[in-house]
Amino acid sequence: MRHQPVDSSESLKTGSLEDIHPQCRMPNGYTGECKYLDKCKPLKEVSEKKVKTDNELLYLRESSCGTTSNYLYKVCCPPQSEWSKKLDLKPIPFPEIINYLAEPGSNGTSQKSSDDTKSTTVLRDGSNKETEECGVEVSGPKQDRDYGTADIDEYPWMALLEYRFGRIMCGGSLISPNFILTAAHCIETTHGKPAFARLAEYNMTSFPTDYVEVDGGATETITVSLIAVKWSEKHPMFDKNTYHHDIGLVKLAEDAKSSDFIRPICLPRYNFADQFDTNTNFITAGWGVHGSINNDIKMEAKLPYMPIPTCKRSISIPSLTNKQLCAGGVASYGPDSCSNIREPTVYTYVYEYLDWIDSVMV
């Protein structure tokens, strides 16, 4: 089945850029405008309450419609004509969050415990023993492009990580029903550890629901799966100064349900490093920054392989190792990371960490 996203953004109109706010879907199902939290009086008032109900916390989380390149929080705000009315705090229920909030003492960042027995064994090709399937998309033939918007059902293993107050700071890849592979610098941030993972996400401004056209012109809704994080772990040798061993794992509180939009990616079975040359291209996907613009829609880019010696000269970083490469792998660091696809970016070479990944997931 071929899925195409429906453009729900507001048409451009005369006025300053600050006056133009994309349309989005509020948690109660009504249409709102995606704007900074500080510019949305009703939600700002709720966010500033010292004591919030579970329903208010849930509504604020589901109101998130993206961040800026400076990580300023944006929410799906009711039209200003509705501000004098009482806010209808009846969000679309996410069972994962309700169960998470109901669990005594849960904070989404607990460490792995000895009684944590619910795990999935991942084979070296990334499949798990129950399904033995990974890296499979339902998309039809792909377009050959250097950079652009991904189809809504492409890269179904992509995940977004939520932190305090619903902030989106990092992405990752689903490698089993309950594990996400990410970077170590995403495990401990200025906003704490990841608390939730978003799966089946496409357009952050329409959170939690995307609207897509299927074969025949019909429209279907796809709701994001928001799952609490049980614990997260960074590589024990991670160095935040050199970004060596910049790899981490996020354990989900429950298994993600497989669908056309949620599927794991394979871990590399072989070491292909000797086969990489200047004709090798890699694909990167996600919601990274491009220039000064934070992408709200899932994007993809083709990145050519660059040998380590050339990469060292290009970005003046002498400390690269064979556990890193330029293009392909887990995004680590470089000139504005995803902001300039023409500049080399340093990535963590996942194959070199398979033993560590296996040891954490056992």
From TrEMBL:
Any Pfam family the entry gives = CLIP
PROSITE patterns, per the entry: CLIP (PS51888), TRYPSIN_DOM (PS50240), TRYPSIN_HIS (PS00134)
| Domain Peptidase S1, first and last residues per copy | 138-362
Q: Which GO terms describe its cellular component?
A: extracellular region
* Keyword terms: Disulfide bond, Glycoprotein, Hydrolase, Protease, Secreted, Serine protease, Signal
Question: Is-annotated flag, keyword Membrane?
Answer: no
What name is this protein filed under?
Answer: CLIP domain-containing serine protease
Q: Which organism is it from?
A: Papilio xuthus (Asian swallowtail butterfly)
